[in-house]
């Protein structure tokens, strides 16, 4: 759903400027603000509010206008960890359907047809063949999944159970079915630094919990990806005392609007103002609680303001297929409330092409669609 805060510390090195050609090539300069899609809660803004003494309830009310705190019932979140694997290995499990497992032993699951999973020890001893999904649990609430998960965690430990089933196309799918608050404990420290103020961590906990209930990325097989397509989830490996305390202190709390679970988008840095959802996610209807709000305290972010430069050749290459003829400039046609770019024109020597701000961000590798363009020789 967003870029990880750990990426914030990485400096993006602008591509080297190409030497001016005999025709007098330009250097193109992009000045911008913010990092992310700009919708909902700015994480660095929440950090700033917390440093100013605001509590998490006040922070959430600022970013999600008109929502109310309530509690969610008991539920589980099913997170896709691996897909298309020939084998899925795990350790720490104590139960499979009708079988006791040794938590000190590593087991390997393989696919058998379209509906069954076979389980063996690493020595090849057959434990059994099971109708999918094969669900394994641990008495210690900690199963170690062998190999690398989709989110990059290697040999990670996870609360809850592990569901293993044949993939639609090939291999196996491994899904972690974890209680909602256990899921949130594995999300917070991978979304914001655990050293942040407690109230900012609590705001993140509620936003993450609510978002998990409001969205479904995988239909019948899973609910959430473990990466930025949903929320970054590191399982037990990621948990810290401060972030677990934030999950515990807000246990079960979610945001609702009109009685329904709110879709609590969040992102890294606003640059000073968030944006209306319909101005960024094209085709979206306006949402009363996802509107542009002033964000006065996010200037601690290294992406509060930024500047990138590109050579003429780089702009030509990055906008290939959009620019007509030789690239000349970008003209902004319409901005949102923040003011992020909604539409712009790419001017070439043979004509103009209208594009969305999100397209420019993707093509040029911008941190945000809050950007302005200039050039110099």
Describe the structure.
Helix 2 crosses helix 4 (198-214) and helix 3 (180-191) packs across helix 5 (241-249). A 6-stranded antiparallel beta sheet has the order 10-9-8-5-12-13, with no helix packed on it. It has 7 helices and 23 strands. The radius of gyration is 24 Å and the shape is globular. With 377 residues, the chain is α+β, with helices and mostly antiparallel strands. Residues 3-23 have low confidence and may be disordered. The chain has helices at 43-51, 56-63, 180-191, 198-214, 241-249, 312-318, 357-364; strands at 27-33, 41-42, 68-71, 76-85, 87-91, 95-96, 99-100, 106-112, 116-121, 126-131, 134-136, 143-145, 157-158, 161-166, 172-179, 253-257, 260-261, 266-267, 305-311, 327-335, 341-348, 351-356, 371-376.
- Please tally the helical runs, counting DSSP H or I stretches of 4 or more residues: 7
Distance between the termini: 38 Å
* Largest sheet: number of strands, sense, barrel closure: 6 strands, antiparallel
Q: How would you describe the shape? A: globular
Structural class based on helices, strands and sheet pairing = alpha+beta
Q: Nearest-angstrom radius of gyration?
A: 24 Å
Spell the H/E element sequence: EEHHEEEEEEEEEEEEEHHHEEEEHEEEHE
Unreliable sequence segments: 3-23
How many extended strands? 23
- Which percent bin holds the helix content? 10-25%
- Bin the strand percentage: 25-35%
Going across the major beta sheet, what is the strand order? 10-9-8-5-12-13
Quaternary state of the chains = single chain
In round numbers, the mean pLDDT is: 93
């Amino acid at each position: 759903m967003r870029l990880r805060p750990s990426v914030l510390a990485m400096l993006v090195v602008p591509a080297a400027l190409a030497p001016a050609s005999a025709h007098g090539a330009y250097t193109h300069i992009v000045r911008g603000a913010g990092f992310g899609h700009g919708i909902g809660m700015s994480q660095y803004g929440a950090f700033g509010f917390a440093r100013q003494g605001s509590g998490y309830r006040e922070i959430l009310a600022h970013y999600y206008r008109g929502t109310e705190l309530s509690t969610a019932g008991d539920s589980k979140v099913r997170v896709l960890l691996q897909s298309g694997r020939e084998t899925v290995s795990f350790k720490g499990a104590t139960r499979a359907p009708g079988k006791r497992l040794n938590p000190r032993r590593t087991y390997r699951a393989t696919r058998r047809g379209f509906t069954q999973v076979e389980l063996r020890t690493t020595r090849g001893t057959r434990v059994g063949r099971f109708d999918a999904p094969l669900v394994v649990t641990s008495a210690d609430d900690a199963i170690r999944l062998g190999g690398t998960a989709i989110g990059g965690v290697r040999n990670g430990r996870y609360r809850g159970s592990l569901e293993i089933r044949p993939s639609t196309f090939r291999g196996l799918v491994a899904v972690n079915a974890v209680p909602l608050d256990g899921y949130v404990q594995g999300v917070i420290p991978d979304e914001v630094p655990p050293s942040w103020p407690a109230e900012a961590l609590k705001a993140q906990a509620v936003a993450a919990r609510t978002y998990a209930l409001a969205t479904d990325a995988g239909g019948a097989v899973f609910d959430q990806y473990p990466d930025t397509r949903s929320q970054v989830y590191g399982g037990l490996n990621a948990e810290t005392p401060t972030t677990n305390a934030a999950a515990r202190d807000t246990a079960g709390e979610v945001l609702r609007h009109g009685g329904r679970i709110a879709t609590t988008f969040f992102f890294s840095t606003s640059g000073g103002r968030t944006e209306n959802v319909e101005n960024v996610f094209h085709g979206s209807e306006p949402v009363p609680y996802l509107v542009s709000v002033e964000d006065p305290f996010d200037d601690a972010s290294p992406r509060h303001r930024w500047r990138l430069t590109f050579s003429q050749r780089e702009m030509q290459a990055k906008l290939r297929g959009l620019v007509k003829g030789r690239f000349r400039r970008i003209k902004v046609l319409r901005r949102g409330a923040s003011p992020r770019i909604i539409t712009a024109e790419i001017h070439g020597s043979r004509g103009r092409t209208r594009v969305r701000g999100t397209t420019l961000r993707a093509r040029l590798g911008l941190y945000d669609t809050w950007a302005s363009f200039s050039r110099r020789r």
